[in-house]
Structure formats: C-alpha cells, structure tokens
Amino acid sequence: MKTFGTRLVVTIIVLLLGAGLVPISSWTANAMDIVRLADQPGAEVDYAAVWVAEDQGYFKDESISIERRTYANGPAGLLDFANKSIDAEMAAIVPFMQFAARGGEFKLVMSVTKGNAALVGPTQYTSYKDLNGKRIGTPGIGTIHDAVVNYVEQSQGLKFQHVFGKVTDIAVMIEKGEVDAFVGWEPASAIAISQNPKLHYIQQWPPIPNAESLSLIFQPDIAKNKPELIDRFVRATLRGMEFIKTNPKEKTATIIAKKMNDPKAVPVVLAALGSVDLVSPRLDMPSTKILLQTIAKQGKIPAEYATDPEGWVKKYLDYSFLDRAEGSLKK
Questions:
Q1: Do β-strands 212-218 and 181-184 pair in parallel, antiparallel, or remain unpaired?
Q2: In this structure, CATH architecture of domain 31-115+211-330
Q3: What's the pTM value of the predicted model, to 2 decimals?
Q4: Per the CATH hierarchy, to which homologous superfamily does domain 118-203 belong?
Q5: What is the average per-residue pLDDT within 66-90?
Q6: Is the torsion defined by CA of 280, 286, 289, 293 positive or negative?
Q7: pLDDT of the residue at 248
Q8: Phi-psi region of 69 (alpha: psi -120 to 50; beta: other; left: phi over 0)
Q9: Would you say residue 13 has pLDDT above 70?
C-alpha cells in the first residue's frame, strides 16, 4: 500500500505539472543547491561560523547543501578552484592574493577568521626572539603562516630556518626534532598541545594587530549568473557568526568537536577558540596591507602590488553580497 500510495502521489504531481495547475517553479523551489567548498584538514575551528551554520540548519534554510572538499593548504585548493572543480574556497588572504597576482580570478565576499597563526613549541620558549636562528615549521610556502614568520623576521630583525610540513603532523615533527616550533592553524595547534605536555602556546596570536587570516571566495561566473546563491550562503554564515557571538563558547565547542568526529575534543576546541576571531565578516585592511607588503618583500608577488595593496584587494573584494545578506537579516 505504501508503494502504491507513493506512486499515486507522484502521478498526481506529474499530471498537475503537465496541466500547468502547479507551476514548475514552486515544485523546484525547495531543490538544494550544492556548493563544492574547499577547506583544509584540522581546520574546523577556523571555519566555525560555517560549520555552526550547517549544524544549526541555516544552510538548509537557504536551500544549500555543502559538499566539503579538503586540501593540504590554501594554495593546493586554489589549483582546483582555477579549473572550476570547486565552487568556493575558505583559505587565507595571502594565497588568494598570490593567486590573483598570477592572473587568477575570484570574488572575495567576506572574512571568516582573524588571528589563526599560533606559535606552538616546547615550554622552554616564550617568544619568537627565543627562537632566533632555529627551525620554525609552517604549513607550506605561500601560506599566511609562512608570511607571518617572514613578517617577524622583517619587523624584529630575527632569522629562522623555514621548514614546511603538514599542519596535522606538527606534534610529530617537534618530537622527531625536525622543527623547534611551528606556526599553524586551529584546532590542529591545540590538538598538538593536548597530545604533548611539553608543548604550549608560545604566542597564541600573531604579532600583527587584528591580523586578517581567512576569507571566503566564489567563482566569478557564480557571482555573475547566480548572485542570490552567494547571498544565501553569506546569510547562513552570518547567522553562524551570530550564534557564536551570542552563545557560550561551550556550545560552539560542542558543535565543532562533533564536526571533528571527536565529541571528547571539546576542551581542545575551547583552547583553540582563544586563537581566533570568528565573528568579524569584513576584512581588516591594515593587517592585510602588512601581510601583502611582507610577501612583496619576499618576492612572492610583484613589488608594484604592494604600493597600493588596498586598491589591489578591492579589485577582487565585493561586499555587495554581504551588504544584501546583512540587510535581509535586519528585516
């Protein structure tokens, strides 16, 4: 009977659609838009606004389903972004602008994280200065974490040996003596500390005020042909930010630990939340300028881009999606 009933309902719907009695648009209005979204491993805390929004059903409210794609780091994800096998990417402003310098096209629609460059190492070290001449690991060349290390060298007159490795291998690399310390993202850094009592946060926030870290970009053709999809994605993310802002940290930590498939990781997530600002959707331009000028001095982007970094970023930055999303939420 159940099968017969289902077939009957489907038959009636088909007949009504064919007769024009039920508009096709009303039948398809609830179809889910799939967004292929790139991020990085061990980075659930960094993108908490998105994962909280997903957990709370805010994306479902916007008829969006996220298809998560995880890459070793931001530059690795941009390779697939360039060939359009992903629709959007969450990664750092530094690799995004290096991508732009190579001719890459994207729409930068909002910031999702600030901070997110904790220095982790043995308890004997208490500052970057203590590590002068030593080996500092980062998730790779072209990452914002490597840029932060270079900024410290340039601003404090220090020199480090740069070692690249997987951020999820941070604890093992230190134990093997491959690096003396590591600048990584969260919650990978907090996990490393929880696994090794000899490690601690040497410096939990980068030495750049309000340091811009992670942003959200979309494919330009989506921005042109389906701007309302980006509006809806941003609106759901803003609701995730509002949840984080107005609820105890324990609630956010519980959701993120679940996303990590480790409900027992709540204490680790709580520690990691001290390394990030997750509720400021607009880019911090002063720190963005510092980071872009830093990588220009490294030769990672042509020097001319550093003469007016704000103007250069604004060629890719489009706040219209954020403005519309914020306006609709106020209503």
A1: unpaired
A2: 3-Layer(aba) Sandwich (3.40)
A3: 0.87
A4: Periplasmic binding protein-like II (3.40.190.10)
A5: 96
A6: negative
A7: 98
A8: beta
A9: no
Q: Tell me if 31-115+211-330 shares its fold with 118-203.
A: yes
What gap in Å lies between CA 122 and CA 202, rounded to an integer? 8
Enter the tokens of residue 277: 């600002």
Pairing of strands 212-218, 88-92: antiparallel
Tokens for 17, please give them.
Answer: 């659609």
* Mean pLDDT in residue range 306-317: 97
Average pLDDT over residues 70-88: 95
Where are the domains positioned within the chain? Answer: 31-115+211-330, 118-203
First to last CA, the chain: 46
Q: Which residues of 250-271 are buried (b: 16+ CB within 10 A; e: fewer)?
A: eebbbbbbbbbeeeebbebbbb
